[in-house]
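Long-time lurker, first post. I've been practising inverse folding by hand and with some scripts of my own, and I keep getting stuck on stretches where the structure tokens seem ambiguous. Below is the full token string for one chain I'm working on. Before anyone asks, I'm not after the true native sequence, just a reasonable design that respects the backbone. If someone could post their per-position residues I'd love to compare against what I wrote down in my notebook.
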């Protein structure tokens, strides 16, 4: 049996918001309604409109903080009372948390935990070693959530390995790749001789500094879309509305993601679906998802990155082949496929089984 309504937590800060609306849209097409409980900063007006356009979605702004912003757990008592109460009041049959600590809040319904990132794996990839002691409460919340969830979902095998390196084997884990409804959202356009990068420019994980250093050696300009201070060497565009960013991806010859850390990379998928040639950092996630459909360069070598980008700039046939390969690979990561994966797990949890187990 499948649920008629679920409670899903999300934030409006980054890619989790896009993921949540995509999945809620896919679930709506299958007759499943979503109560979307927003943690952290409230969605802006454009985000609210996008949420309200999803059939059967009820938006709840909780005022609760995000766990990685509330590293000492100050909001935990209030959240532990508020979220289970919302699940009961809304009639949700299953709870889907897009975080960690909320999974251990004692819901009466089955709980699925979708892991999109974590501070410990981010820290190792970006700074080396482990987070300092003032993150201990956060890390304890992650452990408790992973242990309490009936199922844990990750968007790539690479990220599953990173999680298990920090928290031990996750026997109830399943990999479901993120997806986008590319048949509706993306259109290739007339290409401009530019390289585009996009994301949170302030986030060390995005590693835009290495691209800025590489840009000095390139014959094409590099445009940078996203929040954060201007980075010398890149042409800043600021934060763009989703439709503006997709339009720019559809017009850019090359999309470059030099990330040090990326559990999935929705911006890469969007650029690929828009038909841009991909040049990516050589990290396990990107190899897993885009091997054979992108060029790769070391994440810490500006000269090597510039060399790969310049090869793609100079070689028109190679660039067009990469653009076609990216479009074809993007067709694998669809909203429908993602929705099927989550629905199967929801049904297993409601039947009292877990990933890898057979229903009675």
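-- Answer (accepted) --
I ran through it position by position. Result:
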């Amino acid at each position: 049996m499948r649920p008629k309504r679920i409670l899903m937590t999300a934030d409006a800060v980054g890619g989790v918001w896009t993921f949540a609306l995509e999945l809620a849209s896919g679930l709506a097409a299958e007759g499943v309604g979503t109560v979307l409980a927003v943690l952290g900063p409230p969605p802006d007006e454009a985000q609210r409109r996008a949420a309200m356009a999803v059939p059967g979605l009820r938006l709840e702004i909780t005022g609760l903080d995000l766990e990685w912003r509330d590293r000492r757990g100050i909001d935990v008592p209030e959240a532990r009372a508020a979220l289970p109460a919302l699940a009961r009041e809304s009639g949700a049959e299953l709870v889907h948390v897009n975080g960690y600590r909320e999974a251990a809040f004692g819901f009466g319904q089955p709980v699925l935990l979708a892991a999109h990132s974590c501070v410990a794996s981010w820290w190792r990839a970006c700074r080396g070693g482990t987070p300092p002691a003032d993150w201990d409460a956060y890390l304890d919340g992650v452990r408790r959530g992973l242990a309490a969830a009936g199922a844990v979902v990750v968007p790539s095998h690479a990220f599953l390995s990173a999680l298990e390196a920090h928290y031990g084997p996750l026997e109830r884990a399943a990999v479901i790749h993120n997806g986008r409804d590319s048949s509706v959202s993306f259109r290739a356009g007339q290409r401009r001789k530019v390289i585009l990068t996009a994301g949170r420019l302030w986030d060390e994980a995005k590693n835009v500094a290495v691209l800025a250093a590489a840009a000095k050696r390139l014959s094409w300009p590099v445009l940078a879309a996203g929040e954060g201070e201007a980075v010398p060497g890149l042409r800043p565009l600021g934060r763009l509305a989703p439709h503006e960013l997709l339009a720019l991806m559809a017009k850019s010859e090359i999309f470059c993601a030099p990330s040090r850390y990326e559990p999935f990379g929705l911006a890469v998928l969007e650029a690929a679906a828009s038909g841009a040639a991909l040049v990516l950092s050589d990290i396990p996630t990107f190899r897993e998802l885009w091997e054979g459909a992108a060029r790769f360069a070391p994440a810490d070598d500006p000269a090597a990155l510039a060399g790969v980008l310049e090869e793609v700039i100079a070689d028109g046939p190679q660039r067009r082949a990469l653009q076609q390969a990216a479009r074809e690979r993007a067709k694998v990561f669809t909203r429908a496929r993602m929705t099927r994966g989550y629905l199967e797990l929801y049904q297993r949890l409601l039947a009292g089984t877990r990933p890898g187990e057979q229903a009675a």
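A couple of notes from the structure itself: The domain at 5-178+334-350 is CATH 3.40.50.2000 (Rossmann fold). The mean pLDDT is 94. Happy to go over any region you disagree with.
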